[in-house]
Amino acid sequence: MKNVKPNGKPTPMPLPRPREEMHVFDQIIWDQRRIRHAIENGIPLSELSDINFFNLQITLSGHECIDDICRSMR
Prior knowledge:
Layout (H helix, E strand, L loop, with lengths): L23 H17 L25 H8 L1
């Protein structure tokens, strides 16, 4: 079998659709996939500029994190 070498520098994985159209949990899953793809291909995480690495809290209906959501469901 023939080895295929990439023609150029690896590029970050794009989102399947605009972030505004995605549910928050879909965004999280895609962000994880894109981060893993970047690490496996030697792409600097700084190229994933649409992911906010400094404020990773999920805000849903005024809840700050998953624990708050679980407490509110009890």
